[in-house]
Amino acid sequence: MSATATSEATQYLTFELEEETFALDISKVREVLEFSSVTKVPRTPEFMRGVINLRGSVVPVVDLRLKFGMTRTEKTVNTCVIIVEVSFESESMVLGALADSVQEVIELEPEKIEPAPSIGMQLRTDFIKGMGKRDEEFIIILDIDKIFTADELAFAQEASQSAA
Amino acid sequence: MSGEDDGLDAGREAFKEEAAELLTELETSLLELEEHPTDEDLIGRVFRAMHTVKGSGAMFGFDDIAEFTHEVETAFDMVRMGKLAVTKELTNLTLRARDQIRTMIEASEGKATVDHSVSKSIIGSLQLLTKGGSAKAAVQEVEEVSAKKPSKTASADGSHSITYRIRFKPASDLFITGTNPILLLNELRQMGSCMVIAQTDAITRLEEFNPETCATYWDIILTTTHSANAIKDVFIFVDDMCELHVEVVDEEGEYDEDEGYMKLGEILAARGDVKVDELKKLLGKQKKVGEILVDAGIVDSGHIESALAEQQHIKEVREQRQKTADGAASIRVPSERLDKLVDLVGELVTVQARLSQTAAINGEVLLTSIAEEVERLTWELRDGTMSIRMLPIGTTFSKFKRLVRDLSNDLGKEIQMTTDGAETELDKTVIEKLNDPLVHIIRNSIDHGVERPDVREAAGKPRMGTVHLSAGHSGANVLIKIEDDGAGLDKERILKKAIDNGLVAPDAELSEKEIFGMIFAPGFSTAAKVTNVSGRGVGMDVVKKNIDALRGIVEVKSKKGAGTTITLRLPLTLAIIDGLLVKIADEVFVIPLAVVEECVELSKKDIERTHGRHVSNVRGVLIPYIRLREHFLIDAEEPEMEQIVITEVEDKKVGFVVDYVIGEHQTVIKTLGRVFKDIEGVSGATILGDGTVALIMDIPSLVRSVARHEPTVADTVGV
Fold first, then answer.
1. CATH number assigned to the domain covering A2-156
2. Residue of A43, A53, A57 with shortest CB distance to B633
């Protein structure tokens, strides 16, 4: 399934989350910002870190580490917000994703990408487009659209239910 | 591919837009025409609208539309020429034709399909009408015409205005009959733009003066759409006691408008006040004509004044016409461009706030003065931009005329719609979003509110029911009222239904307001059976939701047997509000200033005194409060002295406890996007002077949410 999705050589932006390397299709990435301050929206799940001001528009920011079951992202000099464009219920939406540090843009041929093993990843496999291999190191290529599917973001009800 | 195609496409787009407007105009005029079937002005408007649709339709390749419209136009051409009378049948057909034209335009976009048999049937019926095939129509016509003002002959009223020169010279014994000439003159004033000059040259010296005789006469310059006969009718009762001259001096379209009106001398000569040769003789002298004439004793200054007034009047009338023609020259701008402009202004407001803040911290005089200048310009720009988006609500109102007419016909009821305050201006987006709620409210009024004619008569009310739509400003809000004189809401029935549906406990004691509020609950309907108009209980739910989304408030007042009034209170604009900045720990929030009543202090002692209950005694009134720190789960120590911001929503006062009130803030509203669309208590966000984001609190939703979570809150307090 994921093999068909990556049939051409594509550029990826790599970044780190808890010393592990992840990658995103560069066509999904709009820009990378320095992480300064974020305004928390009350009564939302913890992985929704809040909203930031992106040149006049208000953009939600997601803590990928919390989303993937790791610890909360702490602010360091290297912490970045990767602004991505996500298709959400057939509409495009701008989101910010927190990363410990942003590495580089790499090019990967499709044959260097393997489907993710179905067990042992400790991460929902549908979030993963595939495993890229570079210098004997594996990179987890994320499917950003899947991470923010409708039910993943339909936390508002959950949040209010858990509060009740 | 080619530029020509683009040009044609743009033309087609423009035609569609224009046609949409023309069709609206057509509908409005037709509905008015139904009430005033002899009004030539309206017939002209209907004809012109159709003619334009036909013409530009053919130009941009909408041949089917042009062809169809032509048939309808033919009928109205006959009406215009007085060969065919306006009947209900005709207006019905024309309204159907109008809908068909709209469908045809939509079909060209692929939005709908055209049922050509409908076109054929409309044209067929129209042709039958124009050939006088419908005897019924003819009879009806006679009745309708005679029912209307009989004095108003069809040929009398033109759509264009004419200026008359009237000399009213009453006989000297006019007063003896008890006639007051002033009343006659006032009547003339009501007919149009009017200038009256009293001529006093016949008044004798004081010792010879008899106060019982009338020695004054009047020159009147009147611009009106009425005919000369209508003017003579004014003087009908003094006909044999006066000299009356009515002459047309200026007619719209008759003269070349660029040419000035007659010179003073020409006017006097035309009136016969001076002779042309006498005038010519005197013109050699280099004085103003008026002065020369007075000096020469040919005419007295009264006449000169009168002639000058005529000159002035005509000048003004012509200028006015010119202005009306210029006024129509507006520019059509796509609304996206306007939205973009508003966005940019919003950003500018944010940047300006940052600039002012930086200047204030910096303290440099030059920078401060620049910042102040930028602030002033920004506000002007903001107000200007907002006003561009304002539209009168009238267009929406006239849409409902059709709805009322068709629905009441379908239901066999007699209902008229009256409107008030159609010129009230509202933000474009608000008007667009107002459409659905108003449709539901009016449908409800017609279906459930206003009774059948026989029922109304039995109840001692006029057969004809009324739905009154009105709009007006009230502070920073716009009030829209929908009143009907129908049966009113049945409190007991609503309560019973609410108890049956499990919406309220059987033993609950509710105020009238709370009971009426029930009608907005989803799926709530007291209608015994579901009709195609209403009864499914969806409508009022939609009303509430849409009005909430506009940050508005719905109020219901009703008296059984006398009618129902629904009031919508809406903010003027959606883009910028006045807000109150408050701080809790490190977080800054905005409370809409519109709901804020006052701010009071809350000390730890006060809290102890009420044993941790969330109520505060403000000048003898007990006000419950919500600790935002707890509700928003903000984890930080509260300060010694907190502040309560007291708000009033839906007549209930609720306080919100915050750490610190910062002050007022012009809040540019940004949406939080789809991710946060279901968050309770937050309606949006704004960007502060330092570039950070602050959330805007949605006070009504916050109150509801807290009320629902109340036990939980109490538990945490108890722990």
1. 2.40.50.180
2. A43
